[in-house]
Design brief:
The protein is an alpha/beta fold and 513 residues long. It has helices spanning 17-26, 44-47, 62-72, 79-98, 132-145, 210-217, 247-251, 276-288, 305-308, 310-318, 375-392, 415-422, 429-444, 450-465, 492-505, 509-512; strands at residues 11-13, 31-35, 52-53, 113-114, 124-125, 150-154, 157-164, 167-175, 178-183, 187-189, 222-223, 228-235, 255-258, 293-296, 328-337, 340-342, 354-356, 361-362, 489-490.
Length: 513
């Protein structure tokens, strides 16, 4: 397939809210959008239930939203970025409505606002009850189809960034008809999260961090990789991805109980609405003691459950559970990655010509522990910022991409057990060293394991480097939080060198630091 007529146009990789909104904000400038799936389908955005956080209520303000975000982030948020996003959030909601998103409203016509953990005010804007992501993706996909300046390539998977003298000059992708090269010096990475690296995840299992890996192989710096948020209430069942029982259910008063009916987090500050890392570790610890855990909405929501949470009600019934009169079996699952491609306030990475938006980026908004419903609003705010930055970057002359072979399709079967064991809810130096030493030979091979193994190795090295417990990163051998700390950049080259040193010395890198 020839793409010469598209040469020089910005290329957006990813079909979630981050990718679609960036493309729409670039209009009427021409842009190419690559998506592995049909437009608007099979993305983490589509699965999002809770909503978007924005200070819209009369008793709320961007300052309060900022304070809640900073508290949840456990000292690692970038205050400038947090202020930028929280102040822009209400306008981002209005922009989504202009693109056709129908948010839920009360009888008086005002936006309905929900409460989620660690928020001091009701500020969660939602759609179709618990179908927010689905409604946003419906509207944005429809808007993209109607925008003639956006050329969409469905069922096309980006596999490598092409460079000339360290500057982006193209994208190598794979389609059903063979490899395709897109010559461009402006690429926006919007490929979502890393959940596919884990056995238990609420992400589409095909989202394993491809964008991070492509950026890392191009020399980009990554940051905060060790901070992986596990959602405490995924439906406990055999299906993958695991169905998410939204935090909004707890926001409506549902409580966590065990098989005896005991509310085991009742004495925890904040109880079920404590920060996600606290609730997740509480659930995981109770399960390690041999208990089963359930979310009980019978008293707080009861007969109103089907109307308030139609999607959750539907998949619970598919699993043979009626949440109106039965508690819902749950367990923690990988849900969101606070780490990602290191970017600035305009979404620019450390590689010239590469931007990143959404979960694949790490802006500094989330810190060590994302505040609930801050992810979609971050993508919405940064999509506009990135589009403006891309437009302000001259297309110039696109250099001819060097010829390279398309790598083998990734195989994660051998990677998931290693990652799940060493990089779970709680970690240890011993477990991280095991993960690194096991992943290193896989990452060094030219095989289907190599790409996911290399990304998992990056995350494990970052986790071993951080000798403390903070936010979503909890070490059994370093249970205390340091007095001061900072965000930690890491490149693939440095991670591989540290992993090889560990393998040679057979001793934890953290102890030799």
């Amino acid at each position: 397939m020839t793409t010469r007529h598209l040469a020089g146009q910005p290329v957006i990789i990813g079909g979630g809210i981050a990718g679609l909104l960036t493309a729409l904000h670039l209009s009427p400038d021409p842009v190419v959008l690559l998506t592995r799936a049909p437009l608007g389908a099979v993305s983490s955005s589509e699965l999002a239930q809770g909503g978007l956080a924005a200070s819209i209520a009369d008793d709320d303000s961007p300052a309060l939203h900022m304070a809640d975000t900073m508290t949840a982030g456990a000292g690692l948020c970038d205050p400038q970025i947090v202020r930028q996003v929280t102040e822009a959030a209400p306008d981002a909601i209005a922009t989504l409505e202009r693109f056709g998103v129908c948010f839920d409203r009360g009888s008086d016509g005002t936006l309905s606002l929900g409460l989620e953990a660690a928020h001091s005010r009701k500020r969660i804007v939602h759609a179709s009850g618990d179908g927010t992501g689905r409604e946003i993706m419906r509207a944005l996909a429809e808007a993209v189809r109607k925008t003639p300046s956006i050329t969409v390539f469905e069922h096309v998977e980006a596999r490598r960034l092409l460079l000339a003298d360290g500057i982006v000059c193209g994208v190598l992708a794979q389609s059903g008809n063979g490899p395709i090269t897109f010559p461009t010096n402006r690429v926006v990475m919007a490929t979502g999260g890393i959940g596919g690296l884990f056995e238990d995840t609420t992400n589409p299992i095909g989202c394993w961090g491809q964008g991070l890996l492509m950026a890392a192989r191009a020399g980009a710096a990554l940051v905060d990789l060790e901070f992986i948020q596990f959602h405490p209430t995924a439906l406990d069942g055999a299906g993958r991805p695991m169905r998410l029982v939204s935090e909004a259910v707890r926001g409506e008063g549902a409580v966590l109980i065990d098989e005896t009916g005991r509310r085991f987090l009742g004495d925890t500050p904040g109880a079920e609405l404590a920060p996600r890392d606290v609730v997740t570790r509480g659930v995981a610890a109770h399960m390690r003691k041999g208990h089963r855990v359930f979310l009980d909405a019978r008293k707080a929501i009861g007969s109103g459950f089907p109307e308030r949470f139609p999607a959750i009600n539907g998949f619970c019934h598919e699993a043979g559970i009626d949440p109106v009169c039965e508690p819902i079996p749950i367990r923690p699952a990988e849900h969101y990655h606070m780490g990602g491609i290191a970017v600035d306030g305009q979404g620019r990475s450390t590689v010239a010509g590469l931007w990143a938006c959404g979960e694949t980026a790490s802006t500094g908004l989330h810190g060590a522990n994302r505040l609930a419903s801050n992810s979609l609003i971050e993508a919405a705010v940064f999509a506009r910022k990135i589009a403006e930055s891309v437009v302000d970057t001259p297309a110039g002359t696109v250099r001819r991409p060097p010829p390279i072979d398309v790598p083998l399709p990734p195989d994660l079967a051998a990677i998931r057990p290693i990652v799940s064991q060493s990089l779970g809810v709680v970690r240890s130096g011993e477990g991280l060293c095991y993960g690194i030493e096991t992943l290193l030979p896989l990452a060094e091979e030219e095989s289907a394991d190599a790409d996911p193994a290399a990304l998992a190795l990056l995350i494990a090295v970052a986790a071993l480097r951080r000798t403390e417990s903070r936010g979503a990163h909890h070490r059994l051998d370093y249970p205390e939080k340091r007095a001061t700390t900072s965000r930690a950049l890491l490149t693939l080259r440095d991670a591989m060198e540290e992993a090889r040193e560990l393998a040679c010395n057979s001793m934890p890198l953290a102890r030799s630091a």
